[in-house]
Amino acid sequence: MTDQLTDGEKQILLRLAREAMEHAVRGKIFPPLDVESLTPRLRENGATFVTLTVHGNLRGCIGAIEAYQPLVDDVREHAAAAALEDPRFRPVTENELSRIKLEVSRLTVPHPLEYSSGEELPAKLRPHVDGVILKDEFRRATFLPQVWEQIPDPEDFLDHLCAKMGARRDLWRKTKLQVYTYQVEEFHEMN
């Protein structure tokens, strides 16, 4: 990603994500933002995923693959949604807030990955660099580049991504799916 955020911009986004998560869990409305005090980059549209972990274990992750709203709004919305709406987990409770660590992943625009067969596809992927989107006529799913840490083998990665999509694990081997790749700028709370 060439258009990197400054450390100050990252800290603002992490603070806003933390505030949004805490307000959502406590049932409060997000406080209004002084948009004029933000840098232009934070006001332009951006796509993000917000990941919540407790002691390194996933606790929630929600985001958008495509930019449709200002970066600051995207982070706030997804921080609240990761805490309360990830269907894999029960909603975060107020007692958990101090143990949750936030990570923000800012996505580049996804680009189609050209390949001729399922046999060729794994070799086209760049582990630990690319996030991957698989798409068929009815479904789609993505794994952020960070998922390569848990699933480093490209074939296993694609199997798991098909399962996440709600398809047979080997669908990518037998059917030519639409494949897109993207990169992320990832940053997280230090505490």
CATH-defined fold name of the largest domain: Glycoprotein, Type 4 Pilin
CA gyration radius, whole angstroms: 17 Å
Q: How would you state the average pLDDT, rounded?
A: 95
- Which structural category fits the helices and strands? alpha+beta
Give a count of the beta strands, DSSP E runs of length 2 or more: 8
Q: How many discrete structural domains?
A: 2
**Which term fits the overall shape?**
globular
CATH superfamily of the largest domain: Hypothetical protein ph0010, domain 1
Order of strands, widest sheet: 2-1-3-8
CATH architecture of the largest domain: 2-Layer Sandwich
Ends distance: 25 Å
**Biggest beta sheet attributes:** 4 strands, antiparallel
CATH top level class name of the largest domain: Alpha Beta
Please mark out the parts with pLDDT under 50 across 5 or more consecutive residues, or reply none.
none
Number of H- or I-type helical stretches = 6
Helix fraction, binned, reads 25-40%
Strand content: 15-25%
